[in-house]
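Quick one before lunch.
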Amino acid sequence: MPRPLSISTARLRLRAFRTADAEDVQRLAGQRSIADTTLNIPHPYEDGMAEKWISNHRDWFERRQQAVFAVTLPGPPEAFVGAIELRVDCEDQRGELGYWIGIPYQRQGYATEAARALLQFGFESWGLHRVTAQCFSRNLPSRRVLQKIGMAHEGHLRQHLIKWGVFEDVDLYGILAEQWRAADPLFSGN
Ligand SMILES: CC(C)(COP(=O)(O)OP(=O)(O)OC[C@H]1O[C@@H](n2cnc3c(N)ncnc32)[C@H](O)[C@@H]1OP(=O)(O)O)[C@@H](O)C(=O)NCCC(=O)NCCS
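Model of the coenzyme A complex:
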């Protein structure tokens, strides 16, 4: 399937990353608090890391391993706000949602709006059966986002991961395609 150019929501445009976004990624994702509650974001975020990450996106998308979108405010001028992704386990038709929003743009509902759009993309465009998300139990904003998009709390995993030398409790959230379709029309676009 050709890579979609963009997904529009009420306030956001989710689009493919460009190499030119690397500077914004390094500046925003480079904040310690962004790395603190994520597993895959390095800290310090060094030169060249964002370019390397972005250079993999097309291949990941074409192999249906991962769909990564830049979260932007369309403008003009466009503002780069953060990133959202769906990592796919093709065999089990399952996706795992991940996201971050730059500090200046947090608490304005952008993660929730982008995550709703990614659920729709995962279920409608990639035909997934189930979407999950995991977050550190102390990450209350992320847990709230997952609740707001209709995901069910499926488990609390005690001291499941080590982050920066500390065991972390993790909460697991999930939603099935049939639940998503049956949910409020706001979620499914039905
Ligand atoms: C998690 C994150 C993406 C949320 O982004 P955001 O755009 O601010 O999220 P939203 O505005 O859509 O919603 C945030 C919700 O959390 C709530 N929230 C924010 N800070 C909170 C806190 N300290 N305690 C409890 N709830 C909090 C907000 O009030 C809001 O809920 P509400 O709409 O019911 O009021 C952002 O904080 C982030 O990037 N954090 C660092 C990276 C990260 O943790 N990514 C997720 C990994 S699982």
